[in-house]
Amino acid sequence: MALTGLKQSEASQIFGKYASNNTHKAAYTGHTTRRYNQTESYPMPDEIAAPKPPFKQRFFRAAIALLFSTILMIPKLRRLRRNARLWMAIRAILIVAGAILLWRAVILHFSAAYLLPGIILLLLGALVRARPVKKPVDAVAAELNAIIVVSGGVLVDATHLKRLPEVNIFVNPARLIVLTHSYQRLEEIALASIESITRRPADQSTSPAWDLEITWQGGEISTRFRYEGAFAAHLAEIAETTLRQVWKKSLPVITP
To answer: Residue 196, SS3?
Structure first.
């Protein structure tokens, strides 16, 4: 019986030590868990906000982005400029938007964020005009039934108050049609009414120049073309030779 009591006391002591050890472990584990949970609430190094780049660096990045966007928009803008009415509406929108931005800049004491874009939009709307598609010379010659096109140099006849450069002479089997570079019709001379075609050096000209004069309508009207530059004589000779060949072919043949 004494032995049994001793064993029971030893067992109770061992159980007490084991329970106390488990209690200390549980307390340490809970303390560690609480510390770990507390550390999770602190921001990690990656979550800390990086400082903003300086203004020069941000401005340079914005300028590069604007430059590349403008380059990509150039083909689209060229297609839009071919439509005169649509481009006129776009110019009006740009001018209105630029005026609004400038008004905002004045209210905000000339803020650069509104002032510079407003000036750019106003300049684009005011200066960039439409550029319709120009017909090729061959297409215009086909419409006029012209067999050849001759450079007319500068038109300096008395009926026009100013010199008209880049004039072309469309040679039709029955008439000569004088058009500007924008295909505006200036003169129409019937081959049957031509009296003479003469070529001579230009009078009162400081640079090398030659005149090609066509007298028609019974000698009452004279149309003069001036060729200037180093190849003036050559161009005038080509025009005279070509026009004379077509003119002689159009003359009626008189048989006795």
So the answer is: strand
